[in-house]
Amino acid sequence: MSVEANTRIQDDWNPIQVTDYPAEYDRLRAQRPLAYTSDYDGFYDFMRYQDVQKGSRDWRTYASGQPFLEFPEFMRSIPIQENPPTHTFFRKFLARYFTPERVDMLIPDIEEIVAANLDPLIEAGEADMIEQFGAIVPQQVLAKFMLLPDDAWKTMAASLAKADAVRHDIEAMREVNKNLWNPTVESLIEDRRANPQDPSIDIMSGVLELEPEGRPVTQEEAVAIGVQIFSAGADTTTAAIGSILSYLGSHPEAQAELRSNPDLIESAVEELLRLAPPLHHTGRKATRDVKAYSITIPAGAKVGLNVYSANRDEDKFERGNEYVADRSPNPHLTFGHGPHQCMGAPIARAELQTMLRQILAKTSHFELAAEPVSNGRPLRTGWSHVRVRFEK
């Protein structure tokens, strides 16, 4: 059945035109918990926590393949675009590089990278924490994690800047994202073929030794795994940095609470991740006709699992639209849920917590020096500029 054959095809909302996402998602959860839009070639969108959580686990009904609803031809990425059993094989392989022990080994590097970039900005008294920090630190951490040369982060940052430059032109953005990370990954593969590293530590050396289904890994598969790592570890953490500083820089009472009780830093970071997930959705496709809320989602239709809306569902989170620093438990879905849950989440958490701890320890106060500038991309929470003034 085609989408056009559905009996209810009128738009329930138009994400491209939304200016107040929390209010719109509140409306849709109450009135259209399964909403349709013709934007981005049309998709059905689950709004409530229980549906998003269930759909994230149910890969047989909602298959991965197009993880970003706005990009029909996104760079091939493994394992996010795969489903079991192929997904299981590659995820099990990658999991060995994201163990708690491996992340703990990275913590001193994260602390050093954060301090090296943050201290001069605090000393200067004011900084754009996107351009001068957020666009740099996650790339430097990823380069360290991937055992890349110290200056490799510059190429990575340039790739993100290339995509950001066309963010207001969806067709140009789609074209750029077809192969944004491929040159970087292909260069790394070429180097590792010539200069293999310890595969127990170096991911790409390990990738090149893989034997899916008993055969050597293909070049295309190796590139797709690398693309997944680079694309997942880049601008999402930058966006979270902007969201955390935007909120705390404009809410002195919340900042003061953390200064008086630093033990709340971890839960506060989780709460701000809940309220401002960098990606609003995970994208899926229906493998069969599915009926929900008296609507039939036809087989083959795109389906959005709306993490942003689910994270504010008051059936799951009391005072769902409010910041609660000590919220516990906090089962937000910002890092996904089920088989495609983000493996790099511990690294992102470490970066965000380290940043906040160091800022609070090295300053007496910080505040926004100008209104934060959103990067203006629908279905995402991101920032072009977050200018902060520091007091030592």
Describe what this molecule looks like in 3D.
- The structure is a single chain.
- The protein is an alpha+beta fold and 392 residues long.
- 46% of the residues lie in helices and 11% in strands.
- It is globular.
- Residues 1-7 have low confidence and may be disordered.
Determine the mean pLDDT. 91
Question: Roughly how many Å is the radius of gyration?
Answer: 21 Å
Share of helix, binned: 40-55%
Number of strands: 12
How far the N terminus sits from the C terminus, by CA atoms, comes to 63 Å
Low-confidence stretches: 1-7
Series of H and E elements:
HEEHEHHEHHHHHHHHHHEEEEHHEEEE
Sheet with most strands: 5 strands, mixed
Lateral strand order in the biggest sheet:
1-2-8-5-3
What fraction of residues sit in β-strands? 5-15%
Count of helical stretches: 16
**Overall outline:** globular
Structural class: alpha+beta
Task: Fill in the keyword field for this structure.
392 residues; single chain; 12 strands; disordered N terminus; alpha+beta; 46% helix; 5-stranded mixed beta sheet
